[in-house]
Write a structure and sequence with these properties.
heterodimer, A: mainly alpha, two-stranded antiparallel ribbon, 22 helices, 1% strand, globular, disordered C terminus, B: 319 residues, alpha/beta, 2 domains, ten-stranded mixed beta sheet, 10 strands, 21% strand
Chain lengths: 502, 319
């Protein structure tokens, strides 16, 4: 019963007019910055931080949290409409979402993304309330060895991500790993592949590569066809998903939610991994894996649910252990300390109204986002009918602004343009950029954790099989590898490749 | 021709006059840009944003905080060294990184072109362990490292940071071999510590003193005396090992910015640091405030720089 008492306390704190207002402001702002690619929640939070000094602590936190999960909603919109993922977690949404948009099913994709996110947000919030502390404790048992094994698993998933040839997918992962090397090596402090450019000392920003490979190269490809029509070839038939869409999407949403809630708790890369693994899972369990990459609704529903659940559950380590799992959470940690709140095990006991109020506000915020986003779908889809010659300069402008604002330098914009041309060449060679991005994200994780684990074990590789979680993950990876080699599956993959790009 | 000359003269006069009006006296002309060398959300950034309203009030001018992260501050410092010396660009500088990078690599800017304007914080480096760790003191840590060389792993926020330099100094002072495990930041170090994956972790006093101490236990600080923010934690010197390390944060400008502007700015920072309202904010963030004027701060730098040079000559921390 204690749980319900706490929940009632939370809701009674969250529904005061002030808190509701700031929840709405946060959700709106978040949607807005999510739609603008590159202008991420971290920068927005930083700018708004001094303003929150003058707000009551709970209202401030509710607003800041709202910006974060609002951005997760908004980020999918551009990924689906113009193939422009603003964040790592929305890359996979672009794979099938954009194909759906091209087929005139943008409305269905957006609606499923919004509904899936809402469902996932609800479940993850309940999960946070019930099992938060226990789950956070479990996440701590993930040390370098476990992360290494998890990353191996993730990299194997990356090959499944591609809808084309396996060889090309592996090649793209390799390029991604290579790009991940650029920068200062965390373990030794030495520079790698920086060519003496000080801008490359910290490696290449994810947004730079994503905007270049997806956004800019898409513009080049679209400009090849001289028509001045909108992005969509076929007529937009309906805005709402069909009954068949729902039937296919809901199991994907449930699986994505479960995966996202769990992986989101893991500090560092958890939320990104959750979207990628949800996509892989959907493709594996689907009876028609060849549909993926060509507008499969499960390919939107699963990852969208997963990244929203992951965003929600990344609050768990912050609220229960005082550990920020990503830059946004670090910002929130800063905001909390400024307001004299100490995130950690004691918050729940000392300031239950704050802890439960924030959790309840997340659910309310998710509801608000659904209410904001569903009516907007019609408007967004109309955007696609704008003649492309008017649309693309705007997209290009947002790409540049977004890339520039990551670390306020023009170098990154030039780099993104370079990646745009590279991405165009990849398209001509029928190589997909998805696996490259996953390699880029996972490569550094793999390397640093391998070396960290070996440092701690003093050079003994047995640490990877002695630790049970690590062992389990390695066994799962081996199983996945075998599955990849099973001829039947390989055959369907090759069939898919032959039919590809008809 | 005469007519042309006349128009020309009037024109130039007019331009001259308007230009005179447009350039108000410092700092009223335009917002002052304050560069933070790290990404939003880091401790320097949070401190800068906490100070911003107070500093604006004291200066009677608007300020803009601009994040120029990268290359442990070099990008921001290079930017500062290339800014106009008109008193509208300042940057936060953080030691030991600001000094140690001068030792460890060839820089893209001339460190002599930058002058410290005011030190704000002197944040001692500390080592913490998990609350249930059998290690109770610095001596226990050293004893374990002696008994099983390499078995003590020290998490740090990266190669060449204060945590790492303190570890090198500790290793040579106590004659033990410690295993360095670098992480990208203090958050990751803390996570690994709580999960029991590393023996001890390097955090600064401000990174744990305001936080929850039910899960971690500070072992030692490397300040020259006990920190008022963590009065219960003994220093290394008290525990018989003379190792000193701290991370200082302050503001700097180009050396050729007019001296009166630097002095005015420094005085404004001093007033902010001493104001009860800001002290209240700083207390919540556990910021060990330690104002020094630019000149006083710069006097200390050569000695520290030399000590880093000595460490580097013996054990270069970047291979």
């Amino acid at each position: 019963m204690e749980f319900f008492d706490s929940l009632i306390l939370g809701f009674s704190t969250a529904v005061t007019p002030t808190n509701l207002l700031f929840c709405l402001i946060g959700a709106l702002l978040g949607t807005l910055i999510g739609v603008l690619p590159g202008i991420g929640p971290t920068a927005t939070l930083a700018i708004l931080l001094p303003i929150t000094f003058f707000l009551p602590p709970l209202a401030a936190l509710i607003m800041l949290a709202g910006i974060f999960y609002g951005a997760q909603y908004g980020g999918s919109t551009t990924a689906i409409l113009v193939n422009l993922p603003g964040e790592a977690s929305s890359v996979v949404t672009a794979l099938d979402g954009y194909q759906m948009a091209k087929q005139g099913r943008a409305g269905a994709a957006l609606a499923i993304a919004a509904l899936g996110s809402f469902f996932a947000g609800t479940v993850a919030t309940i999960g946070l309330a019930i099992a938060g502390p226990t789950l956070a404790g479990f996440a701590l048992s993930f040390g370098p060895a476990e992360y290494f094994s998890l990353t191996i698993f993730g990299l194997l998933c990356a090959t499944v991500l591609a809808s084309g040839s396996v060889i090309k997918a592996i090649g793209m992962i390799g390029i991604g790993l290579l790009l991940g090397w650029v920068g200062t090596d965390v373990n030794s402090g030495s520079e790698r592949l920086t060519f003496g450019a000080v801008e490359l000392f910290d490696g290449i920003e994810f947004v730079v590569i994503a905007v270049g490979l997806f956004g800019i190269s898409e513009i080049i490809v679209n400009l090849e066809s001289p028509e001045s029509r909108g992005l969509i070839a076929s007529k937009i038939t309906r805005l709402w998903p069909t009954r068949e869409d729902f039937r296919q999407a809901w199991p994907a949403v449930i699986r994505g939610t479960a995966l996202g809630t769990f992986l989101g708790i893991l500090p560092g890369g958890g939320a990104t991994l959750s979207a990628f693994s949800a996509y892989t899972l959907e493709k594996k369990v689907s009876r028609n894996p060849q549909e993926f990459g060509r507008g499969a609704i499960q390919g939107v529903a699963g990852p969208e649910a997963a990244n929203n659940a992951g965003a929600q559950s990344s609050f768990i380590p912050l609220l229960t252990l005082g550990i920020p799992s990503n830059a946004v959470m670090a910002m929130l940690l800063g905001a909390m300390t400024i307001h004299g709140i100490t995130p950690g095990p004691s918050v729940m006991h000392n300031q239950p109204d704050l802890f439960w109020g924030l959790i309840a506000s997340m659910w309310i915020g998710n509801l608000m986002l659904l209410v904001i986003n569903l009516p907007l779908i019609g408007l967004w889809v109309k955007l696609l009918t704008v003649p492309y010659r008017l649309l693309y300069p705007a997209i290009l402008l947002f790409c540049c602004v977004g890339v520039y604002s990551v670390s306020n330098r023009a170098f990154d914009v030039a780099l993104a343009v370079g990646f745009g041309f590279l991405g165009y060449l990849f398209r001509k060679a029928k190589c997909e950029p998805g696996p490259l991005l996953l390699g880029f994200v996972l490569g550094p994780l793999l390397e640093t954790n391998l070396r960290r684990a070996m440092l701690i074990s003093q050079g003994s590789p047995s640490v990877f099989i002695e630790r049970p979680i690590s062992l389990a993950l390695l066994i799962a990876s081996a199983a996945l590898f075998v599955l990849l080699l099973v001829p039947a599956i390989r055959k369907t993959r090759e069939d898919a490749f032959v039919e590809e790009e008809a | 021709m005469l007519r042309f000359l006349k128009t020309f003269c009037i024109g130039t006069l007019a331009i001259g006059a308007t230009a005179g009006v447009a350039h108000a006296e410092w700092p009223k002309d335009r917002p002052i840009e304050i560069v933070v060398a790290f990404a939003p959300g880091g401790s320097t950034d949070v401190m800068a944003r906490a100070m911003q309203p107070f500093l604006e009030k004291e200066l009677g001018a608007k300020t803009v905080i601009v994040n120029k992260p990268g290359a442990s501050g070099e990008i921001a410092y290079t930017y500062l060294s290339q800014a106009k010396p008109d008193g509208y660009t300042f940057s936060f500088i953080n030691t030991p990184g600001y000094l140690s990078m001068q030792v460890q690599r060839k820089l893209r800017y001339d460190p002599k072109s930058i002058q410290a304007v005011a030190r704000i914080v002197d944040d001692p480096t500390a080592y913490v362990v998990k609350a249930d760790s059998p290690i109770k003191s610095l001596k226990d840590l050293v004893d374990q490292a002696k008994a099983k060389p390499g078995s003590v792993s020290v998490g740090s926020s990266g190669v060449g940071t204060d945590d790492h330099l303190a570890m090198i100094l500790l290793g040579s002072a106590a004659g033990v071999s410690l295993t360095h495990v670098p992480f990208p930041g203090a958050g990751e170090t803390r996570t690994a510590l709580l999960g029991g994956h590393i023996t001890t972790g390097g955090l600064n006093v401000s990174e744990f003193a305001a936080g929850d101490l039910s899960t971690i236990r500070p072992l030692v600080t490397f300040g020259d005396k006990r920190s008022p923010e963590a009065p219960d934690v003994p220093t290394a010197k008290e525990q018989g090992i003379e190792v000193f390390m701290s991370s200082e944060r302050g503001l700097a400008a180009r050396r050729d910015v007019p001296a009166d502007i630097r002095t005015k700015f420094s005085a404004a920072v001093k007033k902010v640091v001493e104001s009860p309202e800001f002290k209240e904010e700083a207390k919540k963030l556990a910021l060990p405030l330690a104002y020094l004027s630019g000149e006083e701060w710069e006097q200390q730098m050569p000695k520290r720089l030399q000590s880093f040079q000595d460490i580097w000559d013996k054990t270069p921390w970047v291979q």
